Amino acid sequence: MIDKPAGLTSHDVVDRLRHLLRERRVGHTGTLDPFATGMLVILVGRATRLAQFLSGLEKEYEAVIRLGYSTDTGDITGKRIPDPPEDLRATGPWSREQIEAALENLRGEIDQVPPMYSAKKQAGKKLYELARQGQEVERKPVRVCIHAFEPIKSPGELLKDNLDGTFDFDVRVACSAGTYVRTLAEDFGRRLNVGAHLAELRRTRVGDFPINQAKTLEQVKVSLAEEALGMILRNPDEALSRLSFVDLSAEELSRVRNGLDIRVEGATWSDGEWVRLRAEHGHLVAVAEFSAVAGSLHPSVVIAGEQS
User: Fold this and answer.
1) Same domain, 97 and 178
2) Cα-Cα-Cα-Cα dihedral of 278, 281, 284, 286, to 10°?
3) How would you classify the pairing of strands 262-263 and 284-291?
4) Which of 32, 164, 275, 286 lies 20 to 30 Å (CA to CA) from residue 68?
């Protein structure tokens, strides 16, 4: 896990790690915008094959929503959108009851329209490419789940007055994969009848991985210099800890490494459920799909070869 600094794209981080680790097979499981910081789950080598099992994990963020005006990107990097007429906009401050009502309205399952400045593709083109050409296209709403949307500060300090007509609101957001926190900030502002955008964004958790387990790029460099990279690289098995597992016998291990099914007796998994297949000491060998009809596990993704 990498603690991404501001100013780098997620792809920049991957490129730097490829150079540092001298490994071409490096990938991440969920993009962070360049201005954002925080948790970026990185997969290295054969573990890149596990991306499909990790991209859908719940995310958690700490963010600063700036109330007062909107931007064309939904965040602080964009251009300010002209204010609406004064009689159509609020200027704050807002009561605790108004803020809570706006937050509550955006919790649970909601429909989000992806922002134009996003990597989501439409008709084969990324939306941000169209936006940079001055185009805006209709986007279909996407169903997401907001598990938590709440203030970070104590109730008496909900808003910070910036003394320039804007107010900052610090929040914690826990949400399903595919959620745009920028859009959430804009929608929150609309419910208070004011323009809003993200001033800061930090991802603090991905699945079961909290930010305090992440390392900076500088720490990776130091570990390489000290030949202590093993202190940073994690067992791929940890990344899939939410999946059930089977510890393989020597015979089963040989079959799995060759992509062959193994029989299981009395299994209670659902048909099509994913299961970890492990060798000694919890070493992940493969991820298998369970067939209830055949009573077997098929190793769909094998990450340990004959010499592992």
Assistant:
1) yes
2) -20
3) unpaired
4) 32
Contact between 60 and 176 (Cβ < 8 Å): no
CATH code at position 272:
2.30.130.10
* Distant-in-sequence, close-in-space partners of 169: CB < 8 Å, separation ≥ 6: 64, 65, 66, 67, 99, 151, 158, 159, 160
218 & 178 share domain:
no
The CATH number linked to 170 is 3.30.2350.10
Percent helix, strand, coil in the chain, to 5, is 25, 30, 40
Q: Which domain holds residue 146?
A: 59-206
Tell whether 228 and 254 lie within a shared domain.
Answer: no
- List pLDDT tens digits, range 205-264: 999 999 999 999 999 999 888 877 777 888 889 889 899 999 999 999 999 999 999 999
Q: Which residues are catalytic?
A: 33
Domain contains 245? yes
Q: What are phi and psi of 212, to 5 degrees?
A: -70, -5
Rounded percentage of the chain residues whose pLDDT exceeds 90: 69
Can you tell me which residue has the tokens 């948790």?
39
Q: Which spans in the chain are helix H?
A: 10-21, 51-54, 96-104, 127-132, 181-191, 217-225, 236-239, 250-257
Tokens 């296209």 locate to: 137
- Please say whether the beta carbons of 295 and 264 come within 8 A: yes
Question: How many C-beta atoms surround the C-beta of residue 153 within 10 A?
Answer: 13
Looking at the structure, tell me whether residues 30 and 84 fall in a common domain. no
